[in-house]
Design goal:
The chain is an alpha/beta fold and about 300 residues long. The chain is built from seven helices and twelve strands. It has a single domain, classed as Aminopeptidase, CATH 3.40.630. The chain is about 25% helix and about 25% strand. The mean pLDDT is about 95.
């Protein structure tokens, strides 16, 4: 058995129920996840929120791994305490250290199966490229957003998010479970081969680089003054052109896109982002060569 330990986290948000349900099934037949020459450690990220069917208790756990929060010794936020506990148990210097973290999520947006990478850590990009080469999944590279920081996988030397949708919050959906399983198995298989030194890397990867986010138009009281336009709803990953409809006001007036051509919207009308004042994020689709140093970074972490 490889020395590589992979932390699998489900239920980082307590009302995303499909990946945790998959973990429940694996608890009955653990051999299902130990077939890829890596040691897998499955953990429910926020069990207290899962028990209540809520996204979180005090603050978003997937925004609670900021260094300033982790350094605080007197936090009253239960999610910050849980972030510290996860790092104490499974972090690189933890009691049962893992080198890689895979965080499993679902979304109400029509994202299909995709990968989310935070920043440009070489090992993350190499792992994402391997999964993309196997399954063709789009990669959303999130960076440069000062309002969205402290993501769980950033606490480990390598990590990424597997995101699957659309599915309503708190709804168990067989297709979402199966898509999650397929993406996760592709990830574990790739890591097993990297750890064994048996895998060749692709020459390039396609990334969707975060440009910024748009909020719904709002009135003087901060309430939504328009909704996502029906012609845009459900069209994640489809490039926008100048004049494309974005929002629809109650009087029927259409607010149209006025930016440069061909940004690609993602997480359109994600329910959980309403509180974050994000109606969608815009990205730039780019083809990047897979650099040798990225491969070497992942190989070093995986122990090959």
């Amino acid at each position: 058995m490889s020395r590589l330990k992979v932390l699998l986290v489900a239920g980082t948000h307590g009302n995303e129920v499909n990946a945790p349900w998959l973990f429940d099934q694996w608890s009955e037949t653990p051999e299902l996840i130990n077939t890829h020459a890596v040691q897998v450690v499955p953990v429910i990220g926020n069990p207290a929120a899962r028990e209540l069917g809520r996204r979180y208790l005090d603050r978003d756990l997937n925004r609670s791994f900021r260094r300033d929060l982790l350094r605080c010794t007197s936090s009253s936020d239960r999610e910050v305490d849980r972030a510290k506990e996860l790092l104490r148990l499974y972090g690189p210097q933890g009691d049962r250290p893992c080198q890689i973290a895979i965080d499993l999520h679902s979304t109400t947006a029509a994202m299909g199966s995709c990968l989310v990478v935070y920043g440009r850590r070489p090992a993350d990009l190499a792992l994402a490229a391997l999964i993309q080469a196997r399954l063709g999944l789009p990669i959303y590279l999130h960076e440069g957003d000062q309002d969205q920081q402290g993501f769980l996988v950033e606490g480990w030397p390598c990590g990424l998010v597997i995101e699957v949708g659309p599915v309503p919050q708190s709804l168990l959906h067989a297709c979402i479970v199966e898509q999650t399983r397929l993406a996760l198995e592709a990830c574990l298989e790739a890591l097993g081969k990297v750890s064994s030194g048996l895998l060749s890397f692709p020459d390039h990867l396609v990334v969707h680089l975060h440009l910024g986010s748009l909020d719904l138009p709002r009135d003087d009281f901060g309430r939504p003054a328009a909704s996502v336009h029906p012609q845009l709803q459900g069209r994640d990953w489809q490039p926008l052109t100048a004049g494309a409809p974005l929002f629809l006001q109650p009087d029927g007036e259409v607010i149209r896109f006025k930016g440069r051509d061909f940004p690609v919207p993602v997480f359109i009308n994600e329910a959980a982002y309403f509180e974050k004042h994000i109606a969608m994020s815009l990205t730039s689709r780019e083809l990047w060569p897979l650099l040798k140093e990225w491969q070497e970074a992942l190989q070093q972490i995986a122990g090959s």
